[in-house]
């Protein structure tokens, strides 16, 4: 009797173990990694080319099951930059509107090109095409693509999410807003299925509008026009919804470059939005210009009472040269109605629950490749800026750092094509002066309200290129009162990797940086700084 009970007990423990293992495997399988600062591929290993678009949830025309469909533009130059990210291009050549599908928002399948070059330019005359979204128009049982086409808005229709979008009509925006074209635009679909065109004024972009999409006189078009903002010029206009509030988001007018992420909030889609005509900078986006992106679009995952907003930023690297990867996605957090941008290089998302967490290989350094700074710093041009974003430069000896100064040192260096074969992006940290100098450049890294810098062991890495003429040159770190350093003793005429291993982070805080004591005209460049937990 005791023997039989023992066997039953062992079998019970075995089944508990199997169930726990299956549960663990299932949880891990749903926890998918999103990695920024790299070029993305489909789950089949094909390059993803999708810029200036959006994600929409539609029923699969074959199975009737809802799936995510991601539409964007494939530009010819995006292929070239991906293959060799050492040069940038002055033009963007439209190839197609692409369509990708997914069931988890992370693993994507290339469906097909749904709007071709031949369809876009039936007369053979090429023009700008970009900034798009897709809406399901229930009255016609059609899917409508709204895309900027030259100086107007083109509407193209398809019978299914992955079907051919056929030219329907062009909308001249002049009667609506006083210009023929929109500035930037996206499509937002509300919980009730109604879709809206979100766009800015075509000239100057100092106004933002909301227009419902529908059918009039047998044509898919916009039905109304409500101005919800008039103030500083904005682009990258897009909308998301969180806890029944509408958020209008946008970026600065910086061309292809990154900027702060701005927002307004309203209880109603047509407003009023607050603060009135005064967009606020999203907390967390200031130290690296929203991880070197422009606002592209958002997607809100809704699971029971939980809502998770994913910020989907555009990085126009092929035209701006600012790093790797065209698509950079981040989870937002909220303090009540106030959004917070979590700048992460690697994080995990469970689409089934909306849960997310920081990945083990996340780089905690902000603006570590110095790509967020679009001008020579200090800059007297838009934006007027004295310090590198995310970094603090202290001049101990030498010429002061000042805007509008002929003797002020330049804090960043514009990498050459040869440099970019070894380091990422267009810029790097520049330490030099025309007189003898001593300078410290540092960044304090600590836990944010939503991303905890765990205590533990970390590695700090960078790449360096330097001349002779330094009395002392080092990379350093300090945490918990303990100093760590890597001394650079010799000249490095080509880019060289350096590392401080086994840094013990305590109390969720660490200071990293560089110290230079050099003679006049000696120089040092640093780039690609990372702090990653072991």
From TrEMBL:
Q: Per its UniProt record, what CDD domains does this chain match?
A: GH43_RcAra43A-like
Q: Which InterPro entries match?
A: Glyco_hydro_43, Glyco_hydro_beta-prop_sf
Does the keyword Signal belong to this entry? yes
Q: Name one GO biological process term.
A: carbohydrate metabolic process
Report any Pfam family annotated for this entry.
Glyco_hydro_43
Q: Does the keyword Signal apply?
A: yes
Q: Which residues form the signal peptide?
A: 1-29
Q: Name one GO molecular function term.
A: hydrolase activity, hydrolyzing O-glycosyl compounds
Record key words, sorted? Glycosidase, Hydrolase, Signal
Q: What family is reported?
A: Belongs to the glycosyl hydrolase 43 family.
Matching PANTHER family, A to Z? GLYCOSYL HYDROLASE 43 FAMILY MEMBER (PTHR22925), GLYCOSYL HYDROLASE FAMILY PROTEIN 43 (PTHR22925:SF3)
Q: What is this protein called?
A: Beta-xylosidase
Source organism of this protein record: Flavobacterium commune
Q: Which lineage ranks, top first, belong to the organism behind this chain?
A: Bacteria, Pseudomonadati, Bacteroidota, Flavobacteriia, Flavobacteriales
């Amino acid at each position: 009797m005791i023997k039989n009970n023992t066997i039953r007990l062992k079998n019970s423990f075995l089944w508990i173990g199997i169930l726990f293992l299956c549960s663990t495997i299932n949880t891990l399988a749903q926890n998918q990694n999103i990695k920024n600062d790299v070029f993305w591929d489909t789950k089949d290993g094909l390059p993803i080319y999708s810029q200036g678009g959006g994600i929409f949830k539609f029923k699969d025309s074959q199975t009737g099951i809802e799936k995510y469909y991601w539409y964007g533009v494939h530009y010819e130059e995006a292929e070239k930059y991906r293959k060799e990210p050492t040069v940038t291009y002055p033009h963007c050549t439209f190839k197609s509107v692409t369509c990708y599908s997914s069931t988890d928002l992370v693993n994507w399948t290339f469906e097909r090109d749904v709007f071709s070059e031949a369809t876009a330019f039936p007369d053979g005359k090429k023009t700008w095409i970009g900034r798009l979204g897709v809406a399901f128009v229930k009255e016609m049982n059609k899917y409508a693509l709204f895309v900027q086409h030259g100086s107007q808005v083109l509407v193209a229709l398809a019978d299914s999410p992955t079907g051919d979008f056929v030219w329907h009509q062009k909308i001249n925006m002049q009667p609506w807003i006083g210009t023929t074209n929109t500035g930037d635009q996206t499509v937002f679909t509300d919980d009730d299925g109604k879709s809206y065109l979100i766009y800015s004024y075509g000239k100057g972009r100092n106004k933002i509008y909301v227009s419902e999409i529908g059918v009039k006189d047998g044509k898919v078009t916009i039905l109304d026009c409500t101005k919800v903002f008039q103030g500083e010029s904005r682009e990258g206009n897009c909308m998301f919804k969180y806890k029944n509030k509408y958020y209008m988001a946008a970026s600065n007018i910086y061309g292809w470059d990154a900027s702060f992420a701005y927002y307004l909030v309203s209880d109603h889609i047509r407003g009023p939005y607050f603060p009135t005509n005064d967009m606020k900078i999203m907390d967390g986006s200031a130290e690296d210009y929203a991880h070197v992106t422009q606002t592209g679009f958002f997607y809100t995952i809704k699971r029971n009472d939980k809502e998770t907003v994913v910020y989907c930023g555009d990085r126009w690297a092929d035209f701006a040269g600012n790093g790797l990867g065209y698509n950079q996605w981040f989870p937002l957090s909220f303090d009540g109605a106030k959004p917070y941008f979590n700048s992460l290089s690697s994080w995990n998302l469970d689409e089934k629950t909306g849960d997310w967490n920081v990945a083990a290989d996340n780089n905690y350094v902000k603006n570590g490749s110095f790509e967020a700074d679009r001008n020579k710093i200090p800059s007297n041009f838009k934006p007027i800026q004295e310090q590198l974003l995310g970094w603090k430069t202290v001049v101990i000896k030498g010429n002061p750092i000042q805007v509008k100064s002929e003797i002020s040192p330049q804090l960043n260096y514009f990498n050459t094509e040869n440099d970019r074969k070894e380091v990422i992006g267009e810029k790097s940290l520049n330490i030099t002066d025309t007189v003898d100098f001593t300078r410290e450049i540092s960044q304090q890294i600590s836990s944010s309200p939503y991303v905890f810098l765990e205590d533990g062991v970390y590695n700090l890495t960078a790449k360096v290129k330097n001349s002779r003429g330094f009395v002392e040159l080092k990379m350093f770190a300090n945490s918990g009162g303990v100093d760590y350093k890597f001394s650079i003793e010799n000249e490095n005429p080509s880019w060289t990797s350096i590392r401080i291993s086994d840094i013990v982070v305590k109390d969720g805080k660490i200071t990293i940086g560089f110290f230079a004591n050099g003679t006049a005209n000696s120089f040092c460049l640093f780039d690609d700084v990372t702090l990653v937990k072991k």
